[in-house]
Write a structure and sequence with these properties.
The complex is a heterodimer of chains A (246) and B (257). Chain A is of the alpha/beta class. Chain A has two domains: 2-71 and 149-245, Rossmann fold, CATH 3.40.50; 83-146, no CATH class. Chain A has helices spanning 40-48, 87-97, 102-115, 131-144, 161-175, 189-195, 227-245; strands spanning 2-11, 14-24, 29-33, 55-60, 63-64, 72-75, 149-153, 181-186, 198-203, 208-214. In chain A, helix 5 (161-175) links the parallel strand 7 and strand 8. In chain A, helix 3 crosses helix 4 (131-144) and helix 6 packs across helix 7 (227-245). By secondary structure, chain B is mainly alpha-helical. In chain B, 80% of the residues lie in helices and 0% in strands. Chain B has helices spanning 2-30, 40-86, 88-101, 110-117, 121-145, 149-157, 162-196, 205-214, 218-246. Chain B is globular. The two termini of chain B are 13 Å apart. The chains are: A alpha/beta (246), B mainly alpha (257). The interface between A and B is medium-sized, with 30 and 24 residues.
């Protein structure tokens, strides 16, 4: 479980986040929604240990998150895949850096590549793949390291509607049975409500948590067509609208 | 199939290029300049006789000097360019120095270099090195600045340290720029090498061409010039070949079904 308690952060004199308290539980997806410029990406940098909070603490399973923490995986908006490496090399890189034995590297990379349905494309370079396929590679690369926390920044925003829904379902499938907490940042309310067991709303400048919604059955079949889905979407939307006016 | 087709297209292009050069050359030799510009026929024949006897040796000497200068400049300018590109403060401190030294014609340094390093190969290699050094330095610095930071963040999230960033991000990201700077530098380097070989040596194509000129043997002189052209061609083709091998990832179409 990831816990942020009373975290503030900023760039120089410019505060970006104010007293953020937030949790993301193992085996679940927690979604963070908010308008652009409210510090969503900064919050991910904090959770990844890539930026220290100016106040407060970031803990993963009780211990502080360190810079370059091995327990944390990060998937950036534009995938962060290395275009000069093939699919397989991209997925293997993290394991190689960690100095895993070669047969272990091959085994785990192979498992994760088939896990996202990309077997047969191991030798391709990212620029030769579609946006959805690139995002699958990024997911396979992150999962190959068996992270306790996976952070995703707008992972599906660049995809067309059908590919996005397919990948959302794939992600839900991938989380099941893994000891991983996922914190997913998005600006799409529908995406947050479909995926998130909890939905955290970030608003204002500097960004602060405006509210949190419980979502009992995220990702259940046909959830996107159910009244409960629309009801929750409109609750989240009205909170965000209220924050904007305030 | 596709690859074969492409290879044939490339060879065809090369043949066309050579034919065009020969045609222009032949026209020039006809334009009354025949006395000073011998036609392609006699020069090529002379080249073929001279090459096994002496030209190969001179070409080898020139190639050796170019290769030494290339290796030396790559080994120093590429890391320095990366360091300056990654460090704003270092850049601010060094940029004025680089901008003053970059446009200084390096050939003007030859007399000084010959005084310090003697008349032999070291001064010749060094003058070419200086030409290449600044070109590679500035290109690599600018390309380093443009490496998207998301790659470095992404690498850190995979547990990568500084040395991993050089090996897995900077070097591959900079390879295309590095090869371009090499391509631009090689042209200038050949010209500078030619000039430097007219002093204090009796090997190298520069010496051979100037010596033939002194003997008023224009056919020999043009055989040397032809050899110099071919040396350039070989170097450029080698860089293209490297590019195709190292930058396969930029080619989005070749393996797409």
């Amino acid at each position: 479980m990831l816990e942020l308690s009373e975290c503030s952060a900023g760039y120089g004199d410019h505060p970006a986040l104010k007293a953020i308290s937030l949790t993301a539980r193992t085996g679940e997806i927690a979604c963070l929604v908010g308008p652009s410029g409210c510090g969503k990406t900064t919050l991910l940098m904090l959770a990844a240990g890539l930026m220290p909070p100016s106040r407060g603490a970031v803990r993963l399973e009780g211990s502080p998150v360190q810079p370059g923490d091995m327990r944390v995986g990060l998937i950036l908006q534009q995938y962060g895949l290395f275009p000069w490496f093939t699919v397989r090399e991209n997925v293997e890189l993290g394991l190689k850096i960690r100095g895993s034995p070669p047969e272990e590297i091959r085994r785990r990379a192979g498992r994760e590549i088939s896990g996202v349905g990309l077997q047969g494309l191991e030798g391709r370079f990212p620029l030769q793949l579609s946006g959805g396929q690139q995002q699958r590679v990024a997911i396979a690369r992150a999962f190959a390291l068996e992270p306790r926390l996976l952070l995703m920044d707008e992972p599906f925003s660049a995809l067309d509607a059908l590919a996005r829904e397919q990948l959302q379902d794939d992600l839900l499938g991938a989380v099941r049975g893994r000891e991983t907490a996922i914190l997913l940042v998005t600006h799409s309310i529908e995406e947050a409500v479909y995926l998130g067991r909890r939905i955290w709303v970030l608003a204002g400048s500097p960004g602060a948590i405006a509210g949190c919604f419980e979502n009992p059955h995220p990702g259940s079949p046909d959830y996107r067509e159910e009244p409960a889905f629309f009801r929750l979407c409109s609750q989240v939307r009205s909170l965000m609208a209220r924050e904007k006016v305030a | 199939m596709l690859r074969k087709h492409l290879a044939r297209g490339r060879l065809f292009g090369l043949a066309c290029g050579i034919a065009a050069v020969l045609a222009v050359w032949w026209c020039l030799s006809l334009l009354g300049a025949g006395q000073f510009v011998p036609g392609p026929g006699p020069v090529i024949l002379r080249f073929l006789t001279l090459f096994p006897r002496s030209l190969a040796l001179h070409a080898g000497a020139s190639l050796g000097r170019i290769a030494a200068a290339l290796a030396l400049s790559l080994a120093t300018a590429a890391p320095a360019g990366m360091a300056i590109g990654r460090n704003r403060r270092l850049d601010r401190a060094l940029a004025p120095v680089i901008y003053i030294l970059y446009p200084v014609p390096k050939i003007a340094l030859l007399p000084v270099l010959m005084l310090v390093f003697g008349l032999g190969d070291p001064s010749k290699v060094l003058v070419v090195f200086f030409v290449l050094f600044f070109q590679i330095l500035v290109t690599v610095r600018d390309a380093t600045r443009e490496v998207p930071p998301q790659f470095l963040v992404s690498l850190r999230s995979l547990g990568g340290k500084r040395r991993h960033a050089v090996r897995y991000v900077l070097l591959p990201a900079l390879t295309p720029a590095l090869l371009s700077s090499l391509r631009i530098g090689t042209g200038t380097a050949l010209a500078v090498l030619f000039f430097s070989e007219t002093f204090g040596t009796s090997t190298g194509l520069g010496w051979f061409v100037m010596e033939s000129w002194m003997r008023i043997s224009y056919t020999d002189m043009f055989a040397g010039i032809l050899c110099l052209g071919l040396l350039g061609l070989v170097l450029f083709l080698a860089i293209d070949f490297l590019q195709r091998g190292l930058c396969r990832w930029q080619d989005t179409d070749s393996t797409r079904p």
